[in-house]
């Protein structure tokens, strides 16, 4: 499984770059669940949660939330943010391919391209089965990745993210090696550089990890092969009125899977 271990362990710096308001995304997910199931969302899991932005936003709305990440450093950092929400959040430092919650949840979320760290179809199927085991009947699994127009097997693109807080500036340059995907495995080896100016002290962290590209049709087929999930639909953004297409409004690829009733 591909993972940017060294970069993600520096959770404090990561948060300076990526902390954002996710309230619109949370509203979309609540509306989506209510539309499909005819009742309000009561529980969820934020998979590959990083600092746990979504889990905390759901908890602030009274939704029981779980936050899962492979890196214990991320989980500990997530605990430290907005501790008033922690009584409604259950934190897990574990692998997304095999986990067990105390009770099934209504919604699972995997955002910001985190599904890409699963390198093979077998890993994806194992992950789908683990997610489904922890969903209520007709529960939803929402996967968010970059729109293939902007990042694909054939043209990864270059991405830079930056932020500044309390005298600390952080810049993350993604794909500085201009990676090309293996056409058979659909995997790229991507190099990421984090540059930190910590009150005048310059630090540079460089790391490579493997990422795998997938398509809506492939995820749909693998969901069926898992025997536990089926494709419900796909959106181009966190908006119920935005289809997944090539229009300017379609900025993301948001895949919605639904658990089988018997799962």
Describe the structure.
The chain is α/β, with parallel strands linked by helices and 263 residues long. It has two domains: 5-150 and 213-259, Vaccinia Virus protein VP39 (Rossmann fold), CATH 3.40.50.150; 159-211, Single Sheet (N-terminal domain of TfIIb), CATH 2.20.25.110. Helix content is 26%, strand content 33%. The protein contains seven helices and eleven strands. It has helices at 5-9, 11-18, 23-37, 53-60, 72-80, 121-133, 216-226, and strands at residues 43-47, 64-69, 89-93, 105-110, 135-146, 159-165, 168-174, 187-198, 201-212, 229-235, 252-259. A seven-stranded mixed β-sheet has the order 3-2-1-4-5-11-10, sandwiched between helices. It has a four-stranded antiparallel β-sheet with strand order 6-7-8-9. Strand 4, helix 6 and strand 5 (135-146) form a beta-alpha-beta unit. Helix 6 crosses helix 7. The longest helix is centred in the first third of the chain and has 15 residues, at 23-37. The two termini are 26 Å apart. The relative contact order is 0.16. The model has no long low-confidence stretch (mean pLDDT 95).
Feature tags:
alpha/beta; 263 residues; Rossmann fold; 2 domains; 11 strands; N-terminal domain of TfIIb; seven-stranded mixed beta sheet
């Amino acid at each position: 499984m591909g993972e940017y271990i060294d970069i993600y362990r520096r959770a404090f710096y990561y948060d300076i770059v990526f902390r954002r308001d996710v309230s619109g995304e949370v509203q979309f997910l609540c509306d989506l669940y209510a539309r499909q199931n005819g009742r309000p969302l009561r529980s969820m899991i934020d998979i590959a949660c990083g600092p746990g932005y979504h889990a905390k936003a759901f908890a602030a709305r009274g939704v029981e939330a779980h936050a899962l990440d492979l890196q214990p450093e991320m989980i500990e950092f997530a605990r430290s943010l907005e501790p008033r929400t922690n009584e409604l959040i259950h934190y897990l430092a574990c692998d997304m391919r095999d986990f067990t919650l105390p009770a099934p949840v209504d919604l699972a979320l995997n955002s910001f391209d985190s599904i890409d760290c699963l390198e093979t179809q077998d890993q994806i199927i194992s992950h789908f089965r683990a997610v489904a085991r922890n969903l209520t009947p007709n529960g939803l699994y929402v996967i968010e990745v970059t729109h293939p127009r902007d990042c694909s097997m054939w043209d990864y693109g270059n991405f830079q993210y930056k932020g500044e807080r309390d005298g600390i500036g952080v810049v993350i340059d993604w794909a500085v090696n201009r990676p090309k995907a293996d056409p058979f495995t659909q995997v790229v080896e991507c190099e990421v550089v984090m540059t930190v100016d910590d009150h005048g002290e310059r630090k540079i962290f460089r790391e490579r990890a493997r990422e795998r590209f997938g398509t809506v049709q492939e995820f749909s087929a693998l969901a069926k092969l898992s025997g536990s999930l089926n494709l419900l639909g796909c959106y181009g953004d966190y908006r119920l009125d935005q289809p997944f297409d090539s229009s300017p409004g379609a900025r993301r690829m948001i895949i919605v899977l639904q658990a089988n009733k018997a799962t």
